[in-house]
Specification:
alpha/beta; Rossmann fold; 7 strands
């Protein structure tokens, strides 16, 4: 069965400092879509997390999953499309990285993934994911430049660990959601990226709908 593509729901992904906020604002303006930004200032765990990742890692991930699930359901039920500068699908990158680096236990990771799987059965996936590719070194330089106090403790090793998990994430999520990988170093300005995303979205105007009983993601 085929259907015409409704108003787009575009989710961005990428390392901390990749430029998601700038691009999401530009996409929202170009496509006349509401933009949902990550609530950095309003997150009650983020500051504590960067001070003690092992103590607050699991609580932060649960908070983010709940927040982004509610945001995604709002987007779906309103039916007007949107741009998200980070989705709940991408949060798995951080959960896996925290487990791989010993900041959360394998038991906590299993609990998180099980909860995500149950919640994903009630979620409609975004139309597409736009992944912004920057190196860990470039991401760190941008983080240092914007100088958020809570991000002062982010290290290159932390970003490198995230980068490795992003490669796994993109390979998996691309099996169920179209992914556009954008290398920032190959574009001169945001307008070029917006034009590329719009062109790729136009190519998805007719989509095939496949009904499944359970979400195939995460893949273990």
């Amino acid at each position: 069965m085929t259907q015409r593509l409704a108003t787009p729901h575009i989710a961005l992904s990428g390392l901390i400092g990749a430029g998601k906020t700038t691009l999401s604002d530009a996409l929202g303006k170009a496509l006349n879509l509401k933009v949902y930004h990550e609530g950095v200032a309003s997150n009650p765990y983020l500051d504590d997390f960067y001070k003690d990742m092992k103590k607050y890692g699991f609580a932060l991930q649960i908070h983010l999953l709940n927040h982004r699930f509610r945001e995604q359901q709002t987007i779906i039920w309103q039916g007007d499309g949107a741009v998200q500068d980070r989705s709940c699908y991408e949060d798995i990158v951080f959960a896996r990285m925290l487990a791989a680096t010993g900041y959360i236990s394998e038991r906590d990771l299993a609990t998180y993934l099980d909860l995500f799987q149950n919640m994903s059965n009630f979620m409609r996936r975004p139309t597409m994911i736009v992944h912004l590719e920057v190196t860990p070194e470039e991401a760190l330089a941008r983080i240092r430049k914007r100088a958020r106090v809570m991000e002062a403790g982010i290290t290159l090793e932390y970003l490198q660990a995230l980068h490795r998990e992003y490669e796994v994430f993109i390979a998996e999520i691309n099996q169920s959601i179209p992914v556009i990988r954008i290398d920032y170093s190959k574009f001169h300005d945001v307008d070029e990226i917006v034009a590329t995303v719009k062109r790729e979205f136009d190519a998805l105007k007719i989509v095939r709908v496949v009904k499944v009983e359970r979400s195939p993601y995460p893949l273990e």
